[in-house]
Structure formats: structure tokens, C-alpha cells
Amino acid sequence: xxxxxTTTVAAVSAALLLGACSDSQLLSNSDxxxxxxxxxxMGGLLGAGxxxxxxxSHKTTAVLGGAxxxxxxxxxxxxxLDRQAxxxxxxxxxxxxxxxxxxxxxxxxxxxxxxxxxxxxxxxxALRADLNTVSQHLLxxxxxxxxxxxxxxxxxDAAYNVxxxxxxxxxxxxxxxxxxxxxxxxxxxxxxxxxxxxxxxxAEGKARNRRVEIVMIPTK
Length: 220
Fold this sequence. Notes:
By secondary structure, the chain is of the alpha+beta class. The protein is built from seven helices and five strands; from the N terminus they run αααββααβαβαβ. The chain has a five-stranded mixed sheet with strand order 1-2-5-3-4. Strand 3, helix 6 and strand 4 form a beta-alpha-beta unit. Helix 1 runs antiparallel to helix 2 (34-52), helix 1 (2-21) packs parallel to helix 3 and helix 5 (125-140) crosses helix 6 (158-178). It is globular and about 60 Å long. This is OmpA family protein. Pfam families: OmpA (PF00691). Residues 103-220 form the OmpA-like domain. InterPro entries: Bact_OuterMem_StrucFunc (IPR050330), OMP_bac (IPR006664), OmpA-like (IPR006665), OmpA-like_sf (IPR036737). It is found in: Cell outer membrane.
């Protein structure tokens, strides 16, 4: 009976938190703190789950305490990412670079057309100042690990595209490293044409798919 009560408390807590996730007012795109709130909610869910499976003799207290601790940790991460996204948008000079806060990481997208010449993996001089800005940002936030991921459209040989996307990711990562970001924080990945974000049937879609993403992942 005690186990049933504990499971019920966890389920009710999760349901309430999930209900909050779907509240259009809470997570509205116009809310500047939407990602902070979302991270707090998800942190609360995780904390409640940890409390529910703990060996504590006071399961209900463990569930609620876990939810509170998880919510605080999630909110802190979300708040930090909101602040960092705002800083980067203000500091980056090229309007073609986008910054997206997913709630648990930041994704900077560098369109290939402004970053490289056709079939080249040499970064255009005009982008180096912005990559220096990104490097300085990463040095201010040393707890962020970084994935640099290259993508192409579907034109050409798939294997060649993987190699080109890897070389482009490495070229961007090399500039970050040259500006002081430790190599141990950087991972480079070439995805080729595997992960399109638009249709490869149109010129506009292909242009969107040709990109390098700098993904910043908090470790604390």
C-alpha cells in the first residue's frame, strides 16, 4: 500500500508539471524567460522521478524534495542560457548567424554561404571577427562543452559531402581553438546531408541545409 501511495504521488506530481509544460501562456514564444521556465519544469520532473525511486523511508518527502531541487537546478541552467543567448545576439555582427536556446543548450547556426566559398573549407575573412566573439564568449563560460557540426545539402556524392562537412567543422573549431578555447572542450562532427532542416528539392531549402552549427552544452 505504501508503494502504491508513493507511485501515486510521483504520478500526480509529474502530471501537474507536464500540464504546466503545455500552458501556452507559461511557455509563450513572447516570454523572454520561457526557456528558464521550461528548464525548471523539466528539472522538477527529473527530480521527482529520482525521489520516487530513492530508498528513502519517507518517499513522499523525497519526491517533493527531489522535484524542488531539480526545478532549481533546471531554472539556473535555463536562466544562464537565456542570458548567454541574449549576449551573443547583441554581440554578433552578422545578421545571418542565428542563436537558438533549446532549453538545455545553445545552437549557433552559421550558413555556409556566408562562411565558406563554394566547395571550400576556408573560413571567409568576414566571419573571423564573429568567431572571435564566440571564442571570447566561450572563455567567459568555461563550463560549456562545444560541438561543431558541419552539414551539407544533398547535391553530389554522399561520402564526399560527409568529408566536406567534417573539414568545414574542423576549420571553424580550429579558429575557436586559435582564439584560446581549449581543444579538450571541442568536438567536431561531419553530418554531410544526413540532417536536413529544410527540403532539398528547392534552392532555398538547400541553402538552409548548408550550415555549420556551434552547439554549446552546459556541464553544470
